[in-house]
C-alpha cells in the first residue's frame, strides 16, 4: 500500500498567507482530504464576514478551488463536516449548500461550534480521486 502524501494548495493563496499548521488539502490513499475552509479571500489573506448565505457561498467556492487544484470537483465529494456558529441558521445555510451538490449528495455531519475570527461557517470534506 502506498502511504505517500501530496499537498494541495488553494490556487489563489498568497504565499505570505499563513493560516496554521495544516495543508489546504492532502491527497492520500485515493482520497483528497480538505481542511476546514471558511469565508476567506485567499488573494488578500483576509476573512470576509457576512450573512450565513454569503459565508457559505465563499466557503464552498474555496473548497471548489482546492478540489479543482487536485483535479476533482464537488461531484467527487463523499463526506463533509459542517460547523455552524449558530445552528438556528441551519435552514439558511442548507439552502445555499444544496445548490452546490447535485445527484448523489455527500454524507454530512453538521454541528454547532465556537468558531474563530467571527466566522459563521467552516466546512471540511473528503473527495474520492478518479
TrEMBL record:
<dbReference type="InterPro" id="IPR006175">
    <property type="entry name" value="YjgF/YER057c/UK114"/>
</dbReference>
<protein>
    <submittedName>
        <fullName>Reactive intermediate/imine deaminase</fullName>
    </submittedName>
</protein>
<dbReference type="InterPro" id="IPR035959">
    <property type="entry name" value="RutC-like_sf"/>
</dbReference>
<dbReference type="Pfam" id="PF01042">
    <property type="entry name" value="Ribonuc_L-PSP"/>
</dbReference>
<comment type="similarity">
    <text>Belongs to the RutC family.</text>
</comment>
<dbReference type="InterPro" id="IPR006056">
    <property type="entry name" value="RidA"/>
</dbReference>
